[in-house]
Prior knowledge:
- Helices cover 31% and strands 24% of the residues.
- By secondary structure, it is an alpha+beta fold.
- The longest helix is centred in the C-terminal third of the chain and has 17 residues, at 330-346.
Amino acid sequence: xxxxxxxxxxxxxxxxxxxxxxxxxxxxxxxxxxxxxxxxxxxxxxxxxxxxxxxxxxxxxxxxxxxxxxxxxxxxxxxxxxxxxxxxxxxxxxxxxxxxxxxxxxxxxxxxxxxxxxxxxxxxxxxxxxxxxxxxxxxxxxxxxxxxxxxxxxxxxxxxxxxxxxxxxxxxxxxxxxxxxxxxxxxxxxxxxxxxxxxxxxxxxxxxxxxxxxxxxxxxxxxxxxxxxxxxxxxxxxxxxxxxxxxxxxxxxxxxxxxxxxxxxxxxxxxxxxxxxxxxxxxxxxxxxxxxxxxxxxxxxxxxxxxxxxxxxxxxxxxxxxxxxxxxxxxxxxxxxxxxxxxxxxxxxx
Length: 350
């Protein structure tokens, strides 16, 4: 990002990127709904932004320079994450030109990528209570089979709502589930086998199990967890209970909005949010014997159920947490959070 002088009257250039379905930010208004683009544009323009809205496919790297553009984008959960992979190319190209991605590129990388999420974890939470290992092939996993302490939780790197999450009690279960989860047939091996026979030479084959996974410490005795959604200084909390005879809370549908102010949970969430330096964030947090465990976190694709369905939010005022009875509107909170973030973390460094 190039240093520049900023005049408070000057309009900041904001590029809003929408996907192939013309969407940005997930919404609960209806199935497959998203934030309203025209409302976002109107609200940003009222805050003195020069707004352009484009599809990812409309970015012209040859004839347009995006240096010092503020780029608001989101992610996707398309089948196979093929379009997400395409988005990644566009975002990295914009960053190389000097655009300011909001949030940072590495935070996008962690969406539906639990391996990279685990790599980011120590930068947000210094606790080592929830350790994990990650592997790119089954063969690499088997090389470490004598190091595992059971029970373990296996997670496929991509997936949401508890999909691809398994509790494993022993090595036999681990190998069985890992084989199934990591399976990715390399048909090139057949050609290599034929060539090795014809040429009487050994071939070094590709693994047929190359879908990356993580293995994570299991926290026994949890009845559920908390989803904390943060839009700048507003905190929305949903408690998620586990399914019957299941250790997973995500995707259970057993949801409630806690009425009591849990100051320790809110402060723990705020500490992580301050380290991340983002306008908004989603946190999946478990509590056991007074300890907090950051299970997962999201910077894009958070899901906005907590914001849109709650009649209140929590906020800190003069070192005291308050419960504010007020409905929130998704578009208003997006713009408010982005504007405050930009003024604090972006403009101040230009």
